[in-house]
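Quick one:
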Amino acid sequence: MIAVWAGVLLAAVWLAHWGAEHLSDPLKKLRRQWGFSVAAGGSFVGLAAASPEIGINTTSAIRGVSDIGLGALLGSNVLAIPMMVVVAYMGSEQEQFKILR
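Output:
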């Protein structure tokens, strides 16, 4: 059973790497076409990644099941949103350093 999960993990890592390499150029073109900065593009990706948890929180609030929403909030959004802001800031700082050089 561990071998199956290790295989799934390796496949997921490989697919994430493959997707990052093949989607990098089209996403850069799209970002330039829409006029987004690097930080805005990173924030957009971060919000898109956090949207399932936001949906869970909204649904649990509507249904009155606060335990599920609280678990999703504490489990991912509390860590994901500050990490998204830090990565976006670091990306914009590196872009500024490239301009200065």
